[in-house]
Amino acid sequence: MILFLIVLAVVLYWVEKYSMLHGLDLVSFKTSLDKMLVEPDEPFTWTMTVKNDKWMMVPYLRIMELVPRGLRFTETDKEVEKKGIMGLRSVLYLAGRQKTELVRDVKLPERGRYFFRGTSVECGDFLGVQTSMENYPEMAEIVVKPKAYPHGEISLLLGGYLGDYAVRNSLFEDPVLTIGFREYTGREPFRSISWTQSARHNRLLVKQQEPVADLSCTVLLNTECSKGKYVSMLLEQTYSMVRSLCEELEQKKISYDFYTNGTIAGAMGNWKRVEEGLGATHLETVLEGLGRMTYDVSEPLDTFFLRVLKGARGGNSFVVVTPERTARLDELVAGLSERTGRSVLVISAEEVMGDEEMKRVEQEANKKERKLFDGLEE
Fold it and tell me: Could you identify which of 24, 99, 108, 353 might form a hypothetical disulfide with 51, taking C-beta atoms 3.0 to 4.6 angstroms apart as the criterion?
């Protein structure tokens, strides 16, 4: 009996020591998301896969997943991250060769770029006496698009600016428009003679034609702003307006390209231009870029317009979306208008929002500032 107890004690000692030294050997943790680009408050699935590839069980695992701030459960609308806790905690038991998936439906309410940064794991020993800690860093990214601007001003402004071109496109399928008739000189192509008009006036007349303007538009997003603590709030409204503008162009079947002097974070690189295009893929590219936009400026306003002017051609349509309208911006817009021979539509978030909306923005900015100050005090 004594011998049995001694053998048992030795076995338990070695099992205990092994579980402390190798408890997390061949145990893996993987975060996966079913979507990479979502709308604000659009549900997506967040899965944590825990796999034990060894024969020995893991009697106790306490997992803390590092989640992005503002993440909410879809069903309850409660935040995953609680005050004072930097992530979501789960406790598991894993048998040998067992795989477990923790599946959650979640959402993010605000525009931006978010990360699930992996897990911090506490592993218990065989006897439940001691624990050890290990970190498993990851970088699972998801981007939230900006919300569409909730009011109808963007549609009205764009309709007034490009409406005549849309009408012309719907009325004329040919790439040219007949604007009158003149006498035949002998140098014109024979097919240009209008036999109807020639018979009516008893002399040969040819059509005077003008190419129909291409239905295309260049969207310029300026992020330079001098409004201090209101910059972030104004830029959020500006990004929403750009989204609504691009969606309106898509609806009108007007192709567009996109320039910005803003700074984008992440995998899209130095995102200063999206080439001309139309369709769902083109729009998603722009919206992903807007979702990744920071509040920084990559180049000054003057440099930005100089870059745009180099590629501007006569007859081009331009729409400038900006958080504020300044005298210098108006000067640069006038230069662009002179270069193209067309007026330029300027959409200023500050002007479109109006006094009441700006008061709300100021209140939100002050509230955010107080919340940050209270957090520093704690």
Answer: 99
Residue 311: what residue type? G
Which pLDDT does position 269 carry in this prediction? 58
Who contacts 362 (Cβ-Cβ below 8 Å, separation ≥6)?
230
Which residues pair with residue 45 across a beta bridge? 105
- Cα–Cα separations (whole angstroms), residue 124 to 52, 133, 312: 14, 9, 66
Domain spans of the chain, in order of start: 25-144, 153-169+214-377, 176-211
Tokens at residue 277, please?
């295009």
Rounded to 10 deg, the angle between the 231-251 and 280-292 helix axes is 180
Residue indicated by tokens 């409660």 = 78
25-39, 46-60, 290-304, 364-378: which range is least confident on average?
Answer: 364-378
CA 351 to chain centre: 24
The answer to whether residues 247 and 283 touch, using CB atoms and an 8 Å cutoff, is yes
Which tokens sit at 238?
């500006």
Task: Classify each residue of 109-136 as buried b or exposed e, where b means 16 or more C-beta atoms within 10 Å of its C-beta.
Answer: eebbbbebbbbbbbbbbbeeeeeeeeeb
Look at residue 9 and tell me whether its pLDDT is greater than 60: no
pTM, full prediction: 0.79
Compute the distance between CA of residue 68 and CA of residue 87 in angstroms, rounded to an integer: 8
Run of H or E including 90:
strand 87-94
Spatial contact of 62 and 152, defined as CB atoms under 8 Å apart: no
CATH of domain 25-144: 2.60.40.10
Contact 249, 286 (CB under 8 A): no
Q: What are phi and psi of 206, to 5 degrees?
A: -115, 155
Check pLDDT > 60 for residue 170: no
Q: Is the pLDDT of residue 225 over 80?
A: yes
Among 108-122, 192-206, 245-259, 302-316, the minimum mean pLDDT is found in: 192-206
Query: Which CATH fold topology does 153-169+214-377 show?
Result: Rossmann fold (3.40.50)
Q: Greatest CA separation found in the chain?
A: 131
3-state secondary structure 324-347: CCCHHHHHHHHHHHHHHCCCCEEE
The bridge status of strand 255-260 relative to strand 205-211 is: unpaired
